[in-house]
Structure formats: C-alpha cells, structure tokens
Recover the amino acids of this structure.
C-alpha cells in the first residue's frame, strides 16, 4: 500500500479486541440491555430491530413473503466462538469510545446488507448511526488485449496490486481507480492505461500540464520575460475559448469542496478532464506567444493558472504532474 501511495497511521489488530475482552464486553452489554438473548443451543443472538412488527417484506422464490428485518444475527456461536459480526460491533464501539466523531468504512459491495445492521449496532451503544458512513466498492475486472484476465482465489490465479503498478505505472494505477464512482463496476483496461494517447484519461490530463510547461519554456526561449502574473491585465481576454477556460478555473474551489463533502474524489477526475479539454480548445484557437505583449502576458497567465490548477488537483489525487512528456 505504501508503494501505491497509501499510508496508514494505525494498524488495528482484530485479535487485540478478543485478547482485551472487548468483544465479550460488547456482547455482555447487549445481553444486559436486552438487545441480545441466548438461544436454546447456547448461542447468543442479536434481536432484529422490528422482529415483532411487520417490517419490510419481499416475496421469496416460492412466493411467500419474508420479513427482511426479522432475522436475528448470531453474535456467539453455540460452540462459544464469536462471529465476525460480534468483532465488528466491538471494533466500532471501541472506535467511537476512542473519541472519533465520524467513522468512514470501505467495504466490498457484497456486504451491502450488513450496513443497516452495523448502523443499528452503533446506535445500541448510544452513538449516532449517522456518524458511521460506509462506502461500498464494486469489484474490478482487468482486461488485456480486449480479453478478461481470469482470476481465481481457489486456483491461485490473481494479479497483485504490485504487479498492476509495475505493468501500467504508478500514476495510471492511481488515476484509473479513483476516476470511477466506487459504487460502479469497473473494467480496468490495461492496454489503455499504458497507452500514450488522448484516449488515456491520465495521459490526457498530464499532457495538458506538460504542454503548458512547454509553452512557458518557449516564451522564455523566444526572449519574452515572464511577467508578474498577479499584475497582468486579464481584461484583454475576450475570446470564447479564453472565457470558457476562466470559468472552468473559477469552478475549482467548489469542485474540491463538493468532492470532499460527498466523499466522491472521482468528481475531481471529471473536473480535470474537462479542464484539460477546455485548455486544449483554448490552445488550438488562441496563439499564446503572440507579438502583442498585453495579450501574450494575459494568455501566459491564464495558461500558468491552468497548470497550477491541474498540478494541485493531481497532487490531491496522489498523481504526478510532469513538466514534459
């Protein structure tokens, strides 16, 4: 994970919950409060929230209606061994007891049905279930040469993250995973991730940054002295492509705030692609290093601002912004 740019401040051992007695303490609390009970076989079960009410119903395969909220969850098996659910409950209780006011979990999509149960468990210990946010991640399919890369845990066939980064590169691996909504299934095209074309999203954005750096170098090579961009008169920018780029840059603060508030970093990738596209359109229609000094300085300033925006957002996403490609 460190190789991938992800660093954990704390590694939490599940075994420590059992060794410290916190799992047993959580189960005992639920028993004491009447939220759990002992089954006839000696197991301990957490009562369903609306076990005695009608609840939400759904037709089963044989046409009968099944109450989705009437299922009691096993906390401790008949043999005395706690279930994963019991450990999960103890962990979340411990997390909130340590003073966290918001907890964000990332789970596989196959745990969708577990979200409501965990939120309810959190509430049973007196904590606000809205303080727990669960992000569900869909599985990823890898494709090479247009064909699905077969993986099987049973047969030992798999691709490690290290292998993936080695094949497509660090930046592509980071960008491709973050540019999709986590709740959407993802087809990771290995060939596309390695390609140096406008079809490759990360290359497209990085190329825009490199192109701007090249423009600034060319200006200096032609003998133009780069101005203090804060004192430039940008009122000369009146072309549609210039105004469109200015507006797109103005959207950046709100885009970052929205992505953070909604826990949707993929929105920044969408913004970057739009920004790069808008810049390419500006570059194709407006000569930057023109002989008109006022116009040149304004366009150089607009280009520089775009490069800063691209680099800042790529940095947020943990991706490099190369000066040349």
């Amino acid at each position: 994970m460190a190789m991938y740019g992800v660093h954990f401040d704390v590694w939490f051992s599940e075994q420590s919950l059992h060794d410290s007695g916190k799992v047993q303490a959580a189960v005992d609390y639920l028993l004491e409060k009447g939220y759990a009970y002992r089954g006839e076989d000696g197991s301990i079960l957490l009562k369903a929230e609306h076990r005695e009410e009608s609840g939400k119903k759904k037709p089963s395969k044989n046409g009968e209606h099944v109450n989705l909220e009437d299922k009691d969850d096993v906390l401790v098996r008949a043999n005395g061994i706690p279930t994963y659910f019991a450990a999960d409950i103890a962990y979340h209780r411990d997390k909130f007891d340590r003073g966290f006011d918001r907890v964000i979990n990332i789970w596989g999509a196959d745990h969708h049905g577990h979200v409501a149960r965990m939120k309810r468990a959190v509430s049973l210990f007196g904590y606000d279930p809205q303080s727990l946010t669960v992000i569900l991640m869909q599985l990823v399919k890898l494709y090479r040469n247009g064909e699905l890369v077969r993986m099987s845990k049973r047969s030992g066939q798999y691709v490690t993250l290290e292998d993936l980064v080695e094949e497509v590169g660090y930046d592509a691996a980071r960008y491709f995973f973050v540019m999709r909504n986590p709740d959407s299934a993802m087809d990771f095209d290995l060939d596309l991730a390695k390609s140096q074309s406008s079809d490759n999203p990360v290359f497209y954005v990085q190329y825009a940054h490199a192109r701007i750096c090249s423009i600034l170098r060319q200006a200096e090579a032609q003998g133009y002295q780069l101005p203090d961009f804060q004192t430039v008169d940008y009122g000369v920018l009146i072309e549609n492509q210039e105004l469109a780029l200015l507006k797109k840059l103005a959207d950046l603060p709100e885009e970052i705030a929205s992505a953070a508030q909604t826990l949707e970093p993929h929105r920044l990738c969408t913004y970057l692609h739009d920004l790069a596209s808008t810049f390419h359109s500006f570059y194709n229609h407006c000569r930057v290093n023109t002989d008109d000094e006022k116009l040149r300085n304004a366009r150089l300033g607009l280009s520089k601002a775009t490069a800063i925006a691209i680099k800042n957002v790529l940095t947020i996403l943990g991706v490099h912004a190369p000066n040349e490609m």
Observations:
- Confidence is low (pLDDT under 50) at residues 52-68.
